[in-house]
Amino acid sequence: MSTGLPLVSTADRRHRLGRRHCLAPSARAADTRAVADAVVALHATDAATLYLSARARLAEGGPAEVERALYEDMSVVRLLSMRNTLFAVSAELAPWVDSSTARAIAAKERRTLLKHLDEDGQGLDAAWLAHAEAAALDALDARGPSTGSQLSAAVPALRQKITIGRGRKYEAETGVATRVIRLLAADGRIRRDRPRGSWTSSQFRWVHTEPWPAVPADEARAEVARRWLRAYGPATEADLKWWTGWTLTDVRKALAAVGPEEVRLEDGGTALVCPGDTAPEPAPEPWAALLPGLDPSGMGWADRSFHLDPAHRPALFDYAGNIGPTVWWNGEVVGGWAQRPDGEIVWRLLADPGRAAEEAIGAEAARLAAWVGDARITPRFRTPLERELVA
Prior knowledge:
Helix content: 40-55%
Number of helices: 15
Oligomer: single chain
Largest sheet: 4 strands, antiparallel
Protein name: Winged helix DNA-binding domain-containing protein
Radius of gyration: 22 Å
Structural class: alpha+beta
Strand order of the largest sheet: 11-12-13-14
Low-confidence stretches: none
CATH class of the domain at 103-208: Mainly Alpha
GO molecular function, one term: DNA binding
Organism: Streptomyces racemochromogenes
Number of strands: 14
Distance between the termini: 48 Å
Keywords: DNA-binding
């Protein structure tokens, strides 16, 4: 054991989480852009998750504050990026995330679609795909914000059907519209605009936009790693590889560029922090949080043992390893929550954090209920405890 290394205790790690993730009341952020930067990226696969993650960290403002950031001043933008997952990041960080991660994903998406077109045997090729993409962009320029269905109605090429896996057990006929739109979005040539329906809807309209400026990929990965380490450190090489989906070589090159310091953990292991970031973190005031499924504070590490008792995992995670809605007390996951069909926010504690904690959790549940209002939330990735609470 490297006893000469600075120690970052479990308590320090939880203090960092409360302050740096804007979860302690005194640390809450003024706007959605600041929230996104605090956690580097907000999960956006589930439309409601993005809003609820922001809500937990905002000092004030309702869903309209998040909508303003996404659709009016566009200070926060969605990108298909880390782990081939949809995230929302600040516009300032977007070029770095795009070059570090999204470009490679977009290239792979294009190769995959071209392979499917070639295997289909109808003579559809890269030239046909380029024509379909151009026609879709022209339609957006003419029509303005449009849903995928509206684009398909306006662009005949998007109504094309192809067969995936011809001659195999999984053979299936599918339309190309969703795949072409996904590719345009991955390339940064279109972006999601206001959805049809409320803020919980994932039926987005699309608008034509310009791709992000290119940044050298190595520089971009170093910048993302530096920001991530500041938000999530102490953390390990394995944590960063899991969070980004990068190769181990790219992770190591990015960390070498950052030049992190090594620290000791209470469990006897070691981890990394940003240079100079070894001092104890002052304890924030006691805090409770009700975080949605896929929230960054629950998905930031491969090893979550410093804030999550492994015995709680079966109740709080789905079969694929996605975390569901969680209840937190002072940096530790102590239970889960759900919204019933009548709108009631209900929760269950999996540990006994004490009476003060229960009162604070109740107050935070009331704050959540007021913020959500008449909206109804069903997580995309449902967990055993969330299902039990709804039932």
